[in-house]
Write a structure and sequence with these properties.
- The complex is a heterodimer of chains A (about 160) and B (about 280).
- Chain A has about 160 residues and is of the alpha+beta class.
- Chain A has one domain: Jelly Rolls (Sandwich).
- A four-stranded antiparallel beta sheet of chain A has the order 1-8-3-6. A four-stranded antiparallel beta sheet of chain A has the order 2-7-4-5, with no helix packed on it.
- In chain A, helix 1 packs across helix 2 and helix 3 packs across helix 4.
- In chain A, about 30% of the residues are buried.
- Chain B is an alpha/beta fold and about 280 residues long.
- Classes of the chains: A alpha+beta (about 160), B alpha/beta (about 280).
- The interface between A and B is medium-sized, with 28 and 32 residues.
- Strand 5 of chain A pairs antiparallel with strand 10 of chain B.
Chain lengths: ~160, ~280
């Protein structure tokens, strides 16, 4: 896939909206498009987190292996959503497994190269960290609401 | 000496016996009563409720879950939570229940004509929304996009699942379901219902949202629509429930700030009640 194509794909994603063209070039240079069939594992809980992902098409279940329940789905992610941040911080391990719910297309960003690019360009790094933090905050808030179990006491 | 027929309020407090045609178990804790009006006719608007009387036990407000036009019978979907609803759940075909109503404000089906409809239900909150969905589908040309988003606890708790799946197969309505928890084998969405909003197309400036579910779900959804999509609170409608007793604005049991849920609602624009949710104890 050409860099132009990757730039176009990145440009269509709201997560990257507002980044400058030269910043998009940097991101495109560490990205590749990957396709998965339905029911395929993208990464495994406890495994080395070596990439960041953004879902272009399809859906992904984040699963937690619980001893008495084989695989508990914590959350599902869909088109235009960021997948995984275990690659951001040491020890760079995945907290969940990610399995596709259907044929799924993702953008894969090499973690070492991505972290390196952010270290080299702190403005880009700070901007992307803000965006990832926003995603994390939103997911944390959603998870808290799931924990409330409000349908257990619905009217 | 006063007679029983003189004061209107006594008429409104007298339940009319409806025959139970069937009792359908929807979920482990939820059932639907199919009721026959004594004269074969019962007019109501989507979003309205009745006071349902289990003879000798008590009354509860229950939203109507049937189409306003399709059936000659009245459907009321009920969750077993207390003495009255458990008693209603023990009814059999041929038994009678008392009905007062219909009461309350309806969903704004007229005002929403020509606009996108965003219908968001949580748990048993889908039941009061179902007449609005039926109305939208029966009058499909009156509305632009029709979107139904539904959230519930687990895949085993999906209310009206067959209908939701049927709507999901239609091209003139978008239907998405999410659950809070699931194991592998569930291929739908997992997460809070608000996370579905970003996955559907609608024009926030020309959308009427109708939301029903637990209060926290409704407030979170309304806030998300306002903050994330700049929807005006006047265009977001929710339906409230409080401890209703009379259903006609006399007893004050269901007072919510300056509102009586039974007569000023139960369907309210969020603009009218949203601020009250911020006040503890109201």
């Amino acid at each position: 896939m050409t860099e132009d194509t990757l730039m176009r794909i990145l440009g269509e994603q709201s997560f990257f909206k507002g980044l400058r063209p030269e910043q998009m070039v940097v991101l495109a240079s560490v990205a590749s498009e990957v396709e998965y069939g339905g029911g395929q594992e993208i990464f495994e809980e406890g495994g080395h987190a070596d990439a960041a992902y953004l879902i272009l098409e399809g859906g992904v279940a984040l699963e937690l292996h619980v001893s008495h329940r084989a695989h508990h789905i914590v959350q599902t992610l869909h088109e235009s959503e960021v997948l995984g941040w275990g690659w951001l911080f040491p020890p760079h391990r995945w907290s969940f497994s990610a399995r596709t719910l259907e044929p799924t297309k993702v953008l894969r960003f090499d973690a070492i190269q991505l972290r390196g690019a952010w270290e080299a360009d702190c403005e880009l790094g700070y901007e992307m960290m803000k965006r990832f933090a926003q995603v994390m905050t939103s997911r944390l808030a959603a998870t808290r609401l799931q924990l409330v179990d409000f349908y257990g006491n619905t009217h | 000496m006063a007679t029983l027929t003189e004061p209107a309020v006594i008429d409104q407090m007298t339940p009319i016996p409806f025959k139970v045609r069937s009792v359908r178990e929807e979920l482990s804790h939820t059932f639907t009563l199919e009721l026959e009006p004594p004269n074969g006719d019962f007019k109501f608007k989507p979003g309205q409720f009745t006071m349902l009387y289990a003879f000798g036990i008590g009354e509860v407000p229950i939203s109507i879950s049937s189409s306003t036009t399709r059936e000659a019978t009245l459907l009321q979907t009920i969750r077993r939570t207390g003495a009255v609803t458990h008693a209603l759940g023990r009814l059999k075909s041929g038994d009678f229940v008392g009905i007062r109503g219909p009461y309350g404000t309806p969903w704004p089906m007229e005002q929403a004509k020509g606009r996108d409809l965003l219908i968001i239900g949580g748990g048993i909150g889908l039941a009061p929304l179902r007449p609005a969905i039926y109305h939208a589908l029966e009058n499909r040309d009156d509305y632009e996009r029709v979107v139904v988003l539904y959230g519930t606890r687990t895949p085993d708790d999906i209310l009206f699942e067959t209908e939701l799946r049927r709507w999901g197969d239609r091209t003139d309505i978008t239907t998405l379901i999410t659950v809070d928890a699931a194991d592998r084998g569930w291929y739908g969405a997992v997460g809070v219902v608000t996370r579905l909003i970003g996955r559907v197309g609608f024009d926030p400036a020309n959308t009427t949202a109708m939301v029903c579910g637990p209060e926290i779900m409704m407030t979170v959804t309304a806030e998300r629509l306002m903050e994330g999509y700049a929807m005006a609170p006047e265009n977001i409608y929710i339906t409230m429930e409080r401890n209703m007793k009379c259903g006609i604005g006399v007893c004050g049991h269901c007072q919510f700030g300056s509102k009586f849920i039974c007569t000023d609602g139960a369907v309210f624009p969020y603009a009218e009640v949203g601020s009250l949710f911020q006040i503890k104890g109201v």
